[in-house]
Amino acid sequence: MSKQDEGGEAVFFEEIKLKTAELVTLKQFYQDTLGVPVIAEEDGLFSLRIGDTLLTFEQAAEGQPFYHYAFNIPENQFKEAKAWLSNRVTLNREEGEDEADFESWNASAVYFEDPAGNIVELIARHNLNNASGEPFNANSLLCVSEIGIVRDDVRLFVEELQSKGFPKWREGNDGFVPVGDEHGLLIVVKKDRRWFFAEKDSEIFPLSISIRGKGIMEFR
User: What is the pLDDT of residues 111-121, one digit of tens each?
Assistant: First the structure.
């Protein structure tokens, strides 16, 4: 990945490990419906290649875990990506709209839910120099650029992240603070806050993130 425009090292998610109760169905969905390559598989887990990030799902021991995560796409291909996605899934809506225009983030996004209930976002960040002239397909997904981290006390946890060298991306509030940068954002939200573009509230489920230059972070 490139460095941030302002010269600092980008926050980059090398691998994200999530839990699921729908391992077989989820693998079939990403592989067959979206065409995302499955690059590793063994008993109880499989790994997807999302551009520069490895996204691994492991069999959950209990419950029905679900997460929010986002995939960066080429900044000039939002309309093409939306058309590609809408031919394969039902797009989520918010107040009747099936896309989001984040003016303050200079980004455009579209959302859907996979068979495990994960809230998945494709986002074109227009500040990034990643335009493409290739036809949009699953290989156009550039990286996992957001992962939701659910906590009871958002500000306290954000302070902990800042002490480890993670910058706030935006100031946020008591219920929502994005930490990191446009290559990798930890979306810290308060437990029981409704997820944007979804009819479900945030819950705490275990996950693991391998971050370039910072090692592995475990969240429970």
Answer: 999 999 999 99
